[in-house]
From TrEMBL:
The keyword Transcription regulation applies. Pfam families: FCD, GntR. It comes from the Bacteria. CDD domains: WHTH_GntR (cd07377). Keywords: DNA-binding, Transcription, Transcription regulation. Residues 6-75 form the HTH gntR-type domain. SUPFAM superfamilies: GntR ligand-binding domain-like (SSF48008), Winged helix' DNA-binding domain (SSF46785). This is FadR family transcriptional regulator. One of its GO terms (molecular function) is DNA-binding transcription factor activity. PANTHER family: TRANSCRIPTIONAL REGULATOR, GNTR FAMILY, UXU OPERON TRANSCRIPTIONAL REGULATOR. Coiled coil: none annotated.
Length: 244
């Protein structure tokens, strides 16, 4: 496939990513300079800068808070200095490959979290699971909470590599599914799966936690397969935000 030329906004977004990944000027949670200051530094108009910020917000790198400014997301974890907007584009992501990566790493993350999590970390994991259950019941978007749930398990492993890798994989899948559209079957088993996982984590049953996480991911993969088949049979439909 021919590689298309980047727009000025996309190049500006890559320049901002370089500030995060290569220059290390900003870290997770940091506030970016004012719009005027950053536009002048990058040599672009404020309109172009706003579009670049919008692109990075869509890729879950930045977040804009009304009246406060633009911040690097708290859960932003740069994978390496080569990260660019093009490499983050959902069209280039094979969702099932990312699911398989989850199947390799996340059951082990649950295993070590069951052994190593502090009581406070277990309570945080439980809190996110309960909050996600409430959002599912209300039919509301739960992307942020779902990501926080899985990130909190990764953090509870007290393994820095897992703590960096799992959030990166999860954000990639989230972006890809937003592009791919409607996969309602993915959430069918989420509540029961999460409850089972929490039960094993609370009991410090590492083997059980590993199995519960594996089951959860396999359920999600089955939901993805069903969604892909449905999208192949029917053209159109209501676009909804469904997550893993």
């Amino acid at each position: 496939m021919m590689k298309r030329d980047q727009s000025l906004a996309e190049r500006t977004a890559d320049d901002i990513l370089s500030m995060l990944n290569i220059e290390k000027r900003f870290s997770a949670g940091d506030r970016l300079p004012s719009e005027n200051e950053l536009a002048n530094e990058l040599g672009v108009s404020r309109t172009t800068l706003r579009e670049a910020v919008r692109l990075l917000a869509a890729h879950q790198v930045l977040v804009t808070e009304r009246g406060r400014g633009t911040f690097v997301r708290q859960d932003f974890h740069p994978s390496d200095a080569k990260l660019t907007l093009e490499s983050m584009t959902p069209e280039l992501i094979d969702v099932r490959d990312l699911f398989e990566m989850r199947l390799i790493f996340e059951p082990e993350a649950a295993y070590y979290a069951a052994q190593r999590a502090t009581d406070a970390e277990l309570e945080r994991i439980r809190h996110y699971a309960e909050l996600e259950e409430e959002l599912i019941a209300k039919g509301e978007d739960r992307a942020e909470v779902e990501m926080a749930f899985h990130n909190s398990i990764a953090t509870a492993t007290h393994n820095s590599f897992i703590g960096e890798l799992v959030p990166l994989i999860y954000r990639s899948i989230d972006r890809a599914l937003r592009l791919s559209g409607d996969f309602p079957d993915i959430i069918a088993n989420v509540v029961e799966d999460n409850r089972l996982l929490i039960e094993f984590l609370t009991r410090r049953n590492a083997e059980g936690a590993r199995s519960a996480m594996r089951i959860h991911i396999i359920h999600a993969m089955d939901g993805l397969d069903n969604g892909v088949q449905t999208k192949g049979d029917y053209d159109g439909g209501t676009e909804e935000k469904n997550h893993l």
